[in-house]
Write a structure and sequence with these properties.
It is a single chain. This protein is mainly alpha-helical and 133 residues long. Helix 1 (21-39) packs across helix 2 and helix 2 (50-67) runs antiparallel to helix 4. 48% of the residues lie in helices and 8% in strands. The chain has six helices and two strands; from the N terminus they run H-H-H-E-H-H-H-E. The chain has a two-stranded antiparallel ribbon. The termini are far apart.
């Protein structure tokens, strides 16, 4: 049985079109580079693997929880919003999303709306950012 993508409340008028995987991956790469730079202040990311991962989880909790986008998402014009109402998901749900994203596998299992298991667990969806007017 094929499932058809649904339209979250925050989607622009008309059919919901999930952002491309290239944009999402680009945002993640930008965020990861920032995490590597920041983690150099309290650890050696080349020797220890945990500092950049800890920074990534904290970055997702802070930026997505409060602003609905990380610096990488802002550059690639994406937002991470609540699937149910299109608002911010809050710090706790953003931390859950960050922890599951750091495990990698949940992010690779996606539905037709390109919502990974980390998005479903946090009740979030990544959408193209609306231009500010």
């Amino acid at each position: 049985m094929a499932t058809e993508p649904v339209s979250p409340p925050s989607a622009p008028a008309g059919r919901f079109e999930p952002p491309s995987l290239a944009k999402r991956f680009g945002a993640l790469v930008i965020d990861w580079v920032l995490c590597l730079l920041v983690s150099n202040f309290f650890g050696d990311p080349l020797r220890d693997g945990w500092p950049p991962v800890a920074v990534l989880i904290a970055e997702y909790g802070f930026f997505i929880g409060l602003f609905a986008q990380t610096p990488g998402m802002a550059i690639t014009k994406l937002r991470c919003v609540s699937f149910s109402d299109g608002g911010r998901i809050g710090v706790v749900r953003a931390l859950v999303r960050g922890v599951l994203l750091s495990l990698v596998v949940p992010a690779l299992i996606m539905d037709p709306n390109r919502r990974g298991l980390h998005d479903k667990a946090a009740g979030s969806v990544v959408v193209d950012a609306q231009p500010r007017s």
